[in-house]
């Protein structure tokens, strides 16, 4: 694979470990440290894995300095402009865009797996009505492994494909029902005559009492939002899915773990946190105080929707999301939406503030997605649910790639131990 090597000399000694340097097709080379501990007795130390490649992957490539995001080589803005979510799902899973026959079969297969076992509906009734929909998602998706035993053998490629299709197909139904349950409305069943995005909007907002027509601009915006959130290399939730899957856990449990990780406000929960933050700011006059708090190292407050672990340039998804946001607000006649105006003011001020400029903190995909989803009628509590719905295909594609990777091992990092050395047990009567 590579003739290049790196030598780790301890304290300048020239007899350190020699390790291969591996080159990918794009992006940074990696120092293969798999033999480091055996040869030196040392671990590496990299909290948050900011400098660590956890795997080899062919699915998504990100160049954070150039603001590049490729899915199987295709740029995100080209996919958002010219493709649709079903095509992107096929691409992420199979590595190539489908031809007409392949697409028709894939869409038919997904469409005909959107129903869930009728008993699954009982799980919702175990939650309080005011439960956060993400709590419901974690519980119900994890419960799928109790219903679909015929697709949990991870060593059977056919069963992996069936589980993958089931997860992609059933997520809109499970997500929409999580919303319907919290507002006390009846569950709407999926409809095979609607597209994936149309069907989700229909299950979200239709009621049995009257016909509900999905507006094309909204279903197109929904489809684009799903594309923009489909996959993103080894982010926190994808790494969680890979880690869970590395133990041989079934795919439904792994995706439930991914949903749990995505829920955090530093990750997928940011779109909900952006709206809550804009609501707290309330008025343009309060922006300076907000930025002061975000810059204060002693204040845990962060400017939600800004910054990224990888992008030190504009998040390419944010550009597309901003355009989609304006399209939706214009279509709905709310282009003067106060929160959008506040968001634009905040963006303009922050991008001229040396703190953000010096740290290359730009708006990320979550900055505009929340405003768009709110305008479309989604409650903020559903924003991260929609992120999870979209990211399911990325998690599933990465999970399959991990299972098929011959070099894959159980995920088991080590540590830098700073605790106490061995000491004698102290019986109760001798304790202070
Ligand atoms: C997603 O990984 C992915 O790919 C995630 C995601 C995906 O598709 O899966 O892209 C989706 O999670 C997008 C990110 C959504 N999160 C938010 O919008 C929450 C707000 N952002 C921050 O919490 C933060 O930017 C993170 C968590 C996203 C990144 O954190 P890092 O890696 O610690 O950021 P950094 O190392 O670049 O920080 C550099 C400096 C630090 O200050 P100093 O130590 O230099 O003084 O910038 C500061 C940070 O404290 N900083 C911020 C900030 N983000 C970083 N200061 C104020 N507000 C912020 N938003």
Characterization of this structure:
The protein has 432 residues and is mainly α. The protein contains 18 helices and 6 strands. The protein has helices at 36-40, 76-82, 85-94, 100-111, 121-124, 133-143, 157-183, 196-205, 216-228, 236-245, 251-262, 270-281, 287-295, 316-331, 338-350, 354-358, 365-375, 383-404, and strands at 5-8, 17-22, 30-31, 60-63, 68-71, 74-75. The strands form 2 sheets. Strands 1-2-3 form a 3-stranded antiparallel β-sheet. A 3-stranded antiparallel β-sheet has the order 4-5-6. The chain is globular. The model has no long low-confidence stretch (mean pLDDT 94). S-citryldethia Coenzyme A is lined by residues 232, 235, 266-268, 270, 294, 297, 302-310, 359, 361, 364, 366.
Order of helices and strands: EEEHEEEHHHHHHHHHHHHHHHHH
Biggest sheet details: 3 strands, antiparallel
Question: What structural class results from the helix and strand content?
Answer: mainly alpha
Strand order of the largest sheet: 1-2-3
Shape: globular
Total of DSSP H or I helical runs spanning 4+ residues: 18
**Cα Rg:** 24 Å
For the secondary structure, the number of strands is: 6
Low-confidence stretches: none
The rounded distance between the terminal residues' Cα atoms is 61 Å
pLDDT averaged residue by residue: 94
Query: Which ions, cofactors or small ligands are bound in this entry?
Result: s-citryldethia Coenzyme A
Q: Portion of residues in helices?
A: 40-55%
**Content of β-strand:** 5-15%
């Amino acid at each position: 694979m590579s003739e290049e090597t790196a030598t780790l000399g301890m304290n300048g000694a020239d007899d350190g470990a020699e390790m291969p340097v591996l080159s990918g097709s794009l992006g940074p080379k990696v120092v293969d440290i798999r033999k480091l501990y055996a040869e030196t007795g040392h671990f590496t130390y990299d909290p948050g894995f900011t400098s660590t490649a956890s795997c080899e992957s062919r699915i998504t490539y990100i160049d954070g300095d150039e603001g590049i995001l490729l899915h199987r080589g295709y740029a995100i803005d080209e996919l958002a402009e010219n493709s649709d979510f079903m095509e992107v799902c096929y691409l992420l899973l199979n590595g190539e865009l489908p031809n007409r026959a392949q697409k028709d079969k894939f869409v038919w297969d997904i469409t005909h797996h959107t129903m869930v076992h009728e008993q699954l509906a009982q799980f919702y009734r175990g939650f309080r009505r005011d439960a956060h929909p993400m709590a419901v998602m974690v519980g119900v998706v994890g419960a799928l492994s109790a219903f679909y035993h015929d697709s949990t053998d991870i060593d059977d490629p056919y069963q992996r494909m069936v589980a993958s299709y089931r997860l992609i197909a059933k997520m809109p139904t499970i997500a929409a029902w999580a919303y319907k349950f919290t507002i006390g409305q009846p569950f709407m069943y999926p409809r095979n005559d609607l597209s994936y995005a149309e069907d989700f909007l229909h299950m979200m907002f239709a009621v049995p009492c009257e016909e509900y027509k999905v507006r094309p601009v909204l279903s197109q915006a929904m489809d684009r939002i799903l594309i923009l959130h489909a996959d993103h290399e080894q982010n926190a939730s994808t790494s969680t899915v890979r880690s869970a899957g590395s133990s041989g856990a079934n795919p439904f449990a792994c995706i439930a773990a991914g949903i749990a990780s995505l829920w955090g406000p530093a990750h997928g929960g940011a779109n909900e946190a952006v709206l809550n933050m804009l609501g707290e700011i309330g008025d343009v006059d309060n922006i300076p105080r907000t930025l002061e708090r975000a810059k204060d190292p002693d204040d845990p407050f962060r400017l939600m929707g800004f910054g990224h672990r990888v992008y030190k340039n504009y998040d390419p998804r944010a550009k597309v999301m901003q355009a989609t946001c304006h399209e939706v607000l214009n279509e709905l006649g709310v282009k003067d939406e106060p929160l959008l105006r506040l968001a634009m003011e905040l963006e303009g001020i922050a991008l001229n503030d040396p703190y953000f400029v010096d740290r290359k903190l730009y708006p990320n995909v979550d900055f505009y997605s929340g405003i768009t989803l709110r305008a479309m009628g989604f409650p903020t509590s559903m924003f991260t649910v929609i992120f999870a719905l979209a990211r399911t295909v990325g998690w599933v594609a990465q999970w399959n790639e991990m299972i098929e990777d011959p070099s894959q091992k159980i995920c088991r990092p080590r540590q830098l131990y700073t605790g106490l050395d061995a000491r004698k047990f102290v019986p109760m009567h001798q304790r202070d």
